[in-house]
From TrEMBL:
<dbReference type="InterPro" id="IPR001602">
    <property type="entry name" value="UPF0047_YjbQ-like"/>
</dbReference>
<dbReference type="InterPro" id="IPR035917">
    <property type="entry name" value="YjbQ-like_sf"/>
</dbReference>
<dbReference type="Pfam" id="PF01894">
    <property type="entry name" value="YjbQ"/>
</dbReference>
<protein>
    <recommendedName>
        <fullName>Secondary thiamine-phosphate synthase enzyme</fullName>
    </recommendedName>
</protein>
<comment type="similarity">
    <text>Belongs to the UPF0047 family.</text>
</comment>
Length: 167
């Protein structure tokens, strides 16, 4: 059988800083998945201050944000930020411990350069196998969109499918 290629672009709704499970959004945007017996789906976000990732989709401490921190240290809870976002903020903070600037690139705001760092660390793409018209993720895996800017932005995603169509 001959392999085929398919590509389309879709837009994620405008969201502010946080981590969002988008597996259902991706499947909904790509009804063409059901036409493939076997293949790969490659997703690429066309921006430099957000990222895509495969990660835990079940545990509430990952999905529901700082619930772990809120339970143990209520004074440090961060408005439904996720564990992933919390960890990345420690790696690439917006300011030093005394509020000092950390980056030369600050013309677009204090969250812009840290957003670029986080995007470079996590990456702009994920690749997922397709089996019998469905994403072949692991039991606990989900596709995550990580937005690193405080202001809301729509994000364009290019989806490319390569595979063997169903007979």
């Amino acid at each position: 059988m001959t392999g085929s290629w398919f590509q389309k672009q879709f837009t994620l709704p405008a969201r502010s800083r946080g981590s969002y499970l988008i597996t259902d959004d991706v499947v909904g945007a790509l009804p063409e998945l059901k036409n493939y017996k076997v293949g790969i789906l490659h997703l690429f976000v066309q921006h430099t201050s957000c990222a895509l990732s495969l990660n835990e989709n079940w545990d509430s401490d990952v999905r529901e944000g700082s619930s772990w921190i809120a339970r143990r240290e209520p004074e440090h809870a961060l408005n439904d930020e996720l564990d992933m976002s919390d960890a990345l903020d420690r790696i690439a903070p917006e300011a030093g411990p005394k509020g000092q600037e950390l980056y030369r690139h600050s013309a677009e705001g204090p969250d812009d350069m840290p957003a670029h760092i986080k995007s470079a660390l996590i990456g702009a793409s994920v690749t997922i196998p397709i089996k019998d018209g469905k994403l072949a993720t692991g039991t606990w895996q989900g596709i995550w969109y990580l937005e690193f800017r405080a202001s809301k932005h729509q994000r364009r995603v290019v989806a490319t499918i390569q595979g063997q169509p169903k007979a």
